[in-house]
Specification:
Elements (H helix, E strand, L loop, with lengths): L4 H24 L4 H12 L5 E6 L4 E7 L4 E7 L7 H16 L7 H9 L7 H18 L4 H23 L4 H21 L7 H6 L7 H13 L3 H29 L2
Antiparallel strand pairs: 1-2, 2-3
Helix pairs in contact: 1-2, 1-3, 1-4, 2-3, 3-4, 5-6, 6-7, 7-10, 9-10
Length: 260
C-alpha cells in the first residue's frame, strides 16, 4: 500500500522533533556540540528529511528541513547546562542503534523519555563531598593552614548543597554562581574576619573553586577547534568569562568585608 503524502510528512516532522530533542539533551547534559551534532545527524538521516540545516546556540537551536513538499523550521530552547555524561553516553548509543537499524524510529521518543528519567551516576552527596575536597586540596596546595583547609571545606559543602538545590529549580548559571559564590566567600570572610586562618587570596579562591566553569571552557575549546561550531563556541567562552567576572565580584565583596 503506498504511503499517504501527509502521513509521510507527519512522520518526518515527528522524527525531526525527536532528533532535535535528543541532540539538545546532549548539550543540556554537558556534552560537546560535536556529540550533539552527530546524534542529530544519525537520527535525522533515517527520517527522509531533505535540505537539513541546523544552527547550534546555547539559548536556542534552530533547524530547517524539507519533507519533499514544504520547508519547515523548528526552534527549540536549551534549558540550561548540567553535567550528566552518563546520559550523554546513553543518547549517543541510542542514536547509533537507530542509525544502524538495531532500534526502530518508533521507539525513539520512549527511549528519550527513559534516558531523561535516569538517575545521575553520582549522588548529590558525592558531588558535595567532591567539591569540598577540591576546595580543601586547592587551599592545602597553596600552603593553607588547618584552619584555612577546614574553612574552605565547610564553605564548599554549604555552597555546593545550595547550588544543587538551585539547579533543580532550573535557575540560570549566572544567578547560581552569584548566590552560591557570595555564600561560600561570605562564610570564609566571616571566619577570617574573626581571626581564624590567614587573610590570603588563595583561601578566598579555594572556597569558590567548585564554581569554576571547567566543563564549559573545555567544550568551548572543542567547539572552536572544530571550526564548524564557532558561534556556539564563542557563546560558551563569553558565558565562561561572565561567570569568572561574577566570581571576581563575589571575592571582592567578601574581601572588602575582611578589611572592615
Amino acid at each position: 500500500m503506498p504511503i499517504n503524502i501527509s502521513e509521510k510528512a507527519s512522520a518526518i516532522n515527528s522524527t525531526a522533533e525527536s532528533a532535535l530533542r535528543a541532540a539538545i539533551m546532549v548539550i543540556e547534559k554537558g556534552g560537546s556540540t560535536e556529540y550533539a551534532d552527530n546524534v542529530f545527524r544519525r537520527i535525522i538521516s533515517k527520517s527522509g528529511a531533505k535540505d537539513v540545516a541546523v544552527m547550534w546556540r546555547l539559548d536556542n537551536v534552530i533547524m530547517s528541513y524539507s519533507d519533499g513538499e514544504n520547508t519547515s523550521t523548528l526552534v527549540k530552547p536549551v534549558k540550561g547546562i548540567g553535567t550528566d555524561l552518563t546520559a550523554v553516553s546513553e543518547i549517543i548509543e541510542l542514536s547509533e542503534d537507530i542509525f544502524e537499524g538495531k532500534k526502530e524510529l518508533s521507539s525513539l521518543n520512549n527511549e528519550i523519555e527513559r534516558i531523561s528519567r535516569l538517575k545521575p551516576l553520582h549522588s548529590s552527596l558525592t558531588l558535595i563531598i567532591t567539591a569540598a575536597f577540591a576546595a580543601a586540596f586547592y587551599s592545602k596546595f597553596h600552603d593553607g593552614s588547618i584552619a584555612d583547609v577546614s574553612m574552605v571545606f565547610l564553605s564548599a559543602v554549604i555552597g555546593q548543597t545550595l547550588r544543587i538545590k538551585l539547579k533543580r529549580k532550573e535557575m540560570n548559571d549566572g544567578m547560581i554562581t552569584l548566590i552560591c559564590g557570595l555564600l561560600s566567600a561570605g562564610i570564609t570572610s566571616i571566619v577570617l574576619h574573626l581571626g581564624y586562618g590567614k587573610v590570603d587570596m588563595p583561601t578566598m579562591i579555594g572556597s569558590l573553586i567548585y564554581l569554576v566553569p571547567g566543563l564549559l571552557m573545555i567544550n568551548a575549546f572543542v567547539d572552536m577547534t572544530r571550526q564548524k561550531f564557532i558561534f556556539i563556541g564563542t557563546q560558551r567562552i563569553v558565558n565562561a568569562l561572565f561567570l569568572f567576572m561574577i566570581l571576581a565580584l563575589d571575592i571582592l565583596v567578601a574581601y572588602t568585608f575582611i578589611k572592615l
